[in-house]
C-alpha cells in the first residue's frame, strides 16, 4: 500500500515537474525574444551595422532567384573589376535559414517582407539557443541546472550584443548550432546510441554552413576525447560518439563550398584526424586486452611497443616535414592570429585593424557576462563532484573559451554559453544545498516513511541519498571485476555517513543564503536589461543624441545612399573605404571597389594609396579603376568619432604595406597624428584631408573640428580634379565626382611639361607604379 | 639467446590470439570480415591514387571516406551487438542494426552528393 502510494505520488510529482519545466522553458523563450526588441522599439525595424547588409542583400537575391542561382552567383557589383564568387565564399547557413523561414511563412499566407524576416531571425534563434542550453546542461548535471542555465543564456549581454533584432549576422544562428551540436555530442556520449551520433553529424553540418567558428568544435571535441583517453575514461560509448562524427563531419564539411577541400588539407582539421588514429589504436589495445590472458598481453605489449615505436617515428617525421613545408604551417591567417595574438599586427594589418579583433579590456568581461564571471569558478568545482565525461567536457569548454575570449573581444560570444552552463550548475547546486537544509530543519524527521529506525544521526532525505550512493558504488565495483569487492562494500556506508553531515546547514544561514542568491540574480537581470536597452541596441546606421532641445536623429548615411541611388547611373562605380562597401551595394545599389569582405589586400591597398596621395595621383588611380564617385565619411561638424579621418592612419599603413612610396612617418609630425596647422605637408595635401575639409571653413568661419578638437590646418583650398556633388545634412557623408580630364593643356606644351616633371622627384617616379 | 626468446614469445602470442579469436561468435566474425573488406578497398583506392594522381580530388575523397565510414560504422555496430559489452546489454540488436542502417543511409547520401 505504502509502495503504491509512493509510486503514485512519484508519478504525480514527475508530471507536475514536467509541466512546470515546460512552462518555464516557454517563458524563457519569450524573454529571450523580447529582450532583444529594444532597438526595434527605440529606432525602427532596420538592419544594423555593416555585415548584416551584405547578408540581407544575399537573402534578397536568394528569395528572388531561387537556390540554384544563389549557389552559382557571381557578383559583379563589388570588388570592381574583380568581382566576387558569392556562392563559393559565403557561409550559406544564415541566408538559407532566413530564406526558408520566409518561404514557409509566405506559403501559409503570412506575408512578411524579407527585411522583417531578416530582422527577427536573430531573436527567434536566441530563444532556440536557450532551449538548446537547457538540453545540454540537463545532460551534464540535471534539469534544475538546465533551467537556470537557459534563463542565464537568454539574457547574457555578450550574446545579446550580436543577436539583437536587426543584427542579421552569422552568429545569430551559429551560436544555436554550436550549443545544439555540443548537446548531441554529450547525449551520444551518455547513451552510446548511433542514432544520436548521426544527428550530431547533421547538426555539425549546420554549424559548418553557418560560421567560420566551426573549427572550434572540430578542435574541442578531439581535445575532449584525448582528455578522456588520457585520464582512463575510454569506453565504447566514446568511440561511438567520436569516430562516426569525424568521418561524416569531414565529408559534410567538404560539401560546403566555402570549406571545400580545406576540410582535409588545413591544419585546423588535423587534430581531429590525429585523435581519430589514436582512438583506433586505443580501441584495438582494449580489444586485445579483453581477449588475451594477462601474461600474454604483457608479451604482446613488449613486442608491439618496440615495433610500433619505429613506425610511429617514421610517420611522425613525414607529417612534420609536410606541415613545416608551408610557411604558415598549414594554418589560415585568422586561426594563426588566435594562437599567436601578435601575428596579425606583424604580418596582416587588415586583421589587426578591425576593432572587434582587439583583445578585450578587463571591464568588458564584467560588462558582457556580469555576475557569471564569479559564478564560473564555483561551477567548475561543482563539475568535479562527481566528475563525469560530460562535466569534464564542460570544464574543457570553459577553459578554452576563456583563453580565446582573451585574444579577441569578438570571441566573448563563444564564452557566453560556457559561462551560463557553469553558472547554472553552480547556482543549481547551491540552491539544492540551501533548500534541502531548510526542508530538513522545517519538516523534521517524522514525515518521511523511509526512515531507518534507531539511527543516531537525523536522517530523512539524506538516507535516501546514502542508499542510492551505496548502490552506485557497488555497481561500479562489480563492473571493475575481480579485485577489492569486500573493501568497497564496507566503504560506502562510512562515506555516505560523512557526506550526510556536510550537506545540511543551519536554518538561518540557508534562508539568508537563498535571499542573497536571489538578490544576485536580480542584479544580473537589471544589468542585462540595461545593457540591452542602452548599450547594444544602436543600429549604427541611424545615430541619435540628446541635447537640451530634445532628441536629434542623424540619418545621414541613408540620406547619402538614397541620393546615390537616385542621382547616379546604374553602372557608376563608387569608391570609399572598405567599411561602407556592403551598405553601398545593399542600399545605394551601386558597384563598389572594395567592401567588408576584405579578401584582396592589394585592392584595398590601392584604394588606401589613392586616398593618401595628392589630388592628381589619386585621380589617376581612381580613373584607372573606372571610378566615378568617391565617398568619405566626416564627423568633424557633429562630433561623430568613427569617421574616415580617424581611420586614416590604417589606410596609410595598409597602402604602405603594398606600395612602399607611402610611408607612415610622412603623415606624422614628431610621431603625432595631427590635422591642424602643425600637420605635415603630405598630410595637408592628401586626398582624404582635402575631401573631408573642403569648404569646411564655411560652416563656422574658423573650421573647428569637433572630433579632433582643433582648428584645421589648411582652410581655404580648391579642388582641381574632383567636384563636390553632395554633402548630407550634418556633413557626415560627402560625395565627390571625378572631373573628366581637360581637353587641352593651357600654357606650356605637353612635352616640356613631361620634361619638367622628369627632372624633379625622379626617385619617387620610379617607385610610384601609378605614374 | 634473446632473439629466440622473442621469436618463441611471438609464436606463443600468435597462437593465443588465434585461439581467443576463434572463440568469438559467428555473427561477430561476419562483421569483422566486412570491416576487413572495407579497409582493404580503401587501401586499394589510396594505392591507385598514388599511381595515377589525385584528380578529381572530391571523387577520391568520397571514395576513401565511404570505405572508412562504413568500416567505422560496422565497428560501432559490432560494439553494440557484442554480448560481452555490459554497457549495451539493454540494447536490442535490432535497434542497433536500425541505427547502423540509418547512419549508413546518411553517409552514402553525402557520398553520392560529393562524388561529382
Written description of the protein model:
The complex is a heterodimer of chains A (771) and B (116). With 771 residues, chain A is mainly alpha-helical. Chain A is 65% helix and 6% strand. In chain A, helix 7 (114-140) runs antiparallel to helix 8 (143-155) and helix 11 packs parallel to helix 13. Chain B is mostly helical and 116 residues long. Chain B is built from 4 helices and no strands. Chain B has helices at residues 2-22, 26-52, 57-81, 93-115. In chain B, helix 2 (26-52) packs antiparallel against helix 3 and helix 3 runs antiparallel to helix 4. Chain A binds chain B through residues 192-195, 197-198, 201-202, 235-237, 239-240, 243-244, 247-248, 250-252, 254-255, 261, 264, 283, 288, 290-293, 296, 299-300, 302-303, 479, and chain B through 6, 9-10, 12-13, 16-17, 20-21, 23-24, 57-58, 61-62, 65, 68-69, 72-73, 75-77, 79-80, 84-88, 91, 96, 99-100, 102-103, 106-107, 110-111, 113-114. Chain A: Residues 449-490, 743-771 are annotated as: Disordered. Chain A: It is an enzyme of class 2 (transferase). Chain A: It is a multi-pass membrane protein.
What pair of chains forms the biggest interface? A-B, 36 and 42 residues
Give the biggest beta sheet of chain B.
none
Indicate the percent of residues in helices of chain A. Answer: 55-70%
Please report the distance between the alpha carbons of the first and last residues of chain A: 100 Å
Q: What does the average pLDDT of chain A come to?
A: 84
Structural class of chain B: mainly alpha
Intertermini distance of chain B: 59 Å
| Widest β-sheet, arrangement of strands of chain A | 6-5-7-13-12
Tell how many strands the DSSP assignment of chain B holds: 0
Catalytic activity (chain A): a di-trans,poly-cis-dolichyl diphosphooligosaccharide + L-asparaginyl-[protein] = N(4)-(oligosaccharide-(1->4)-N-acetyl-beta-D-glucosaminyl-(1->4)-N-acetyl-beta-D-glucosaminyl)-L-asparaginyl-[protein] + a di-trans,poly-cis-dolichyl diphosphate + H(+)
Family (chain A): Belongs to the STT3 family.
Domain STT3/PglB/AglB core (chain A): 571-630
InterPro entries (chain A): Oligo_trans_STT3, STT3-PglB_core, STT3_N
Amino acid at each position: 500500500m505504502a509502495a503504491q502510494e509512493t509510486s503514485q505520488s512519484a508519478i504525480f510529482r514527475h508530471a507536475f515537474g514536467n509541466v512546470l519545466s515546460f512552462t518555464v522553458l516557454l517563458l524563457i523563450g519569450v524573454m529571450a525574444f523580447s529582450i532583444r526588441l529594444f532597438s526595434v522599439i527605440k529606432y525602427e525595424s532596420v538592419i544594423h551595422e555593416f555585415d548584416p547588409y551584405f547578408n540581407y542583400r544575399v537573402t534578397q537575391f536568394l528569395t528572388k532567384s531561387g537556390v540554384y542561382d544563389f549557389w552559382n552567383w557571381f557578383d559583379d557589383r563589388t570588388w570592381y573589376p574583380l568581382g566576387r564568387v558569392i556562392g563559393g565564399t559565403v557561409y550559406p547557413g544564415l541566408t538559407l535559414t532566413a530564406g526558408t523561414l520566409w518561404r514557409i511563412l509566405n506559403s501559409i499566407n503570412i506575408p512578411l517582407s524579407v527585411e522583417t524576416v531578416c530582422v527577427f531571425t536573430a531573436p527567434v534563434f536566441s530563444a532556440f539557443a536557450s532551449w538548446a542550453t537547457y538540453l545540454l546542461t540537463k545532460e551534464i548535471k540535471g534539469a534544475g541546472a538546465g533551467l537556470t542555465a537557459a534563463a542565464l543564456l537568454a539574457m547574457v549581454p555578450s550574446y545579446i550584443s550580436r543577436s539583437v533584432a536587426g543584427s542579421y549576422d552569422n552568429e545569430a544562428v551559429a551560436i544555436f548550432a554550436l550549443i545544439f551540436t555540443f548537446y548531441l555530442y554529450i547525449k551520444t556520449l551518455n547513451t552510446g546510441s548511433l542514432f544520436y551520433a548521426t544527428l550530431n553529424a547533421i547538426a555539425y553540418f549546420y554549424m559548418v554552413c553557418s560560421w567560420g567558428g566551426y573549427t572550434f568544435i572540430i578542435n574541442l571535441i578531439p581535445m575532449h576525447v584525448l582528455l578522456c583517453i588520457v585520464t582512463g575514461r575510454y569506453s565504447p560509448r566514446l568511440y561511438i560518439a567520436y569516430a562516426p562524427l569525424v568521418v561524416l563531419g569531414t565529408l559534410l564539411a567538404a560539401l560546403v563550398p566555402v570549406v571545400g577541400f580545406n576540410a582535409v588539407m588545413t591544419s585546423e582539421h588535423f587534430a581531429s584526424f590525429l585523435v581519430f588514429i589514436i582512438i583506433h589504436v586505443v580501441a584495438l589495445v582494449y580489444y586485445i586486452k579483453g581477449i588475451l590472458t594477462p601474461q600474454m598481453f604483457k608479451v604482446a605489449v613488449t613486442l608491439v611497443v618496440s615495433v610500433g615505436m619505429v613506425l610511429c617515428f617514421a610517420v611522425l617525421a613525414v607529417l612534420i616535414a609536410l606541415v613545416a613545408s608551408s610557411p604558415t604551417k598549414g594554418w589560415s591567417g585568422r586561426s594563426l592570429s588566435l594562437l599567436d595574438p601578435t601575428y596579425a599586427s606583424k604580418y596582416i594589418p587588415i586583421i589587426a585593424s578591425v576593432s572587434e579583433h582587439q583583445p578585450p579590456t578587463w571591464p568588458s568581461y564584467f560588462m558582457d557576462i556580469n555576475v557569471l564571471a564569479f559564478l564560473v569558478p564555483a561551477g567548475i568545482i561543482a563539475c568535479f563532484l562527481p566528475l563525469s565525461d560530460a562535466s569534464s567536457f564542460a570544464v574543457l569548454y570553459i577553459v578554452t573559451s576563456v583563453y580565446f575570449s582573451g585574444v579577441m573581444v569578438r570571441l566573448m560570444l563563444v564564452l557566453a554559453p560556457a559561462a551560463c552552463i557553469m553558472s547554472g550548475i553552480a547556482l543549481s547546486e547551491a540552491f539544492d544545498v540551501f533548500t534541502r537544509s531548510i526542508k530538513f530543519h522545517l519538516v523534521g524527521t517524522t514525515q518521511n516513511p523511509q526512515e531507518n529506525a534507531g539511527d543516531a544521526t537525523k536522517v530523512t532525505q539524506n538516507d535516501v541519498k546514502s542508499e542510492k550512493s551505496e548502490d552506485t558504488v557497488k555497481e561500479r565495483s562489480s563492473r571493475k571485476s575481480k579485485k577489492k569487492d569486500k573493501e568497497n562494500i564496507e566503504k560506502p556506508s562510512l562515506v555516505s555517513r560523512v557526506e550526510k553531515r556536510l550537506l545540511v546547514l543551519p536554518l538561518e544561514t540557508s534562508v539568508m543564503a537563498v535571499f542573497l542568491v536571489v538578490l544576485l540574480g536580480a542584479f544580473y537581470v537589471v544589468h542585462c536589461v540595461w545593457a540591452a536597452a542602452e548599450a547594444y541596441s544602436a543600429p549604427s546606421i541611424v545615430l541619435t543624441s540628446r541635447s537640451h532641445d530634445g532628441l536629434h536623429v542623424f540619418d545621414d548615411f541613408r540620406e547619402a545612399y538614397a541620393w546615390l541611388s537616385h542621382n547616379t547611373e546604374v553602372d557608376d562605380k563608387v569608391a570609399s573605404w572598405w567599411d561602407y562597401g556592403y551598405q553601398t551595394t545593399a542600399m545605394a545599389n551601386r558597384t563598389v571597389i572594395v567592401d567588408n569582405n576584405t579578401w584582396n589586400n592589394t585592392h584595398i591597398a590601392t584604394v588606401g594609396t589613392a586616398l593618401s596621395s595628392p589630388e592628381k595621383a589619386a585621380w589617376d588611380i581612381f580613373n584607372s579603376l573606372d571610378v566615378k564617385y568617391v565617398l568619405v565619411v566626416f564627423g568633424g561638424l557633429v562630433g561623430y568619432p568613427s569617421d574616415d579621418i580617424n581611420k586614416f592612419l590604417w589606410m596609410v599603413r595598409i597602402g604602405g604595406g603594398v606600395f612602399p612610396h607611402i610611408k607612415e612617418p610622412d603623415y606624422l609630425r614628431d610621431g603625432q597624428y595631427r590635422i591642424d596647422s602643425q600637420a605635415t605637408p603630405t598630410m595637408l595635401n592628401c586626398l582624404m584631408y582635402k575631401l573631408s575639409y573642403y569648404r569646411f571653413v564655411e560652416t563656422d568661419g574658423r573650421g573647428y573640428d569637433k572630433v579632433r578638437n582643433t582648428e584645421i590646418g589648411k582652410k581655404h583650398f580648391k579642388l582641381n580634379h574632383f567636384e563636390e556633388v553632395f554633402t548630407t545634412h550634418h556633413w557626415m557623408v560627402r560625395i565627390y565626382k571625378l572631373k573628366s580630364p581637360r581637353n587641352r593643356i593651357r600654357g606650356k606644351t605637353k612635352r616640356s611639361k613631361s620634361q619638367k616633371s622628369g627632372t624633379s622627384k625622379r626617385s619617387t617616379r620610379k617607385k610610384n607604379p601609378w605614374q | 639467446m634473446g632473439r629466440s626468446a622473442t621469436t618463441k614469445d611471438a609464436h606463443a602470442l600468435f597462437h593465443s590470439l588465434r585461439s581467443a579469436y576463434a572463440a568469438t561468435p559467428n555473427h561477430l566474425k561476419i562483421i569483422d570480415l566486412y570491416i576487413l573488406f572495407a579497409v582493404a578497398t580503401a587501401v586499394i583506392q589510396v594505392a591507385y591514387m598514388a599511381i595515377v594522381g589525385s584528380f578529381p580530388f572530391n571523387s577520391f575523397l568520397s571514395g576513401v571516406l565511404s570505405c572508412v565510414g562504413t568500416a567505422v560504422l560496422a565497428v560501432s555496430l559490432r560494439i553494440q551487438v557484442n554480448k560481452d559489452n555490459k554497457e549495451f546489454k539493454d540494447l536490442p540488436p535490432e535497434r542497433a542494426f536500425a541505427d547502423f542502417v540509418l547512419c549508413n543511409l546518411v553517409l552514402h547520401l553525402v557520398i553520392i552528393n560529393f562524388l561529382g
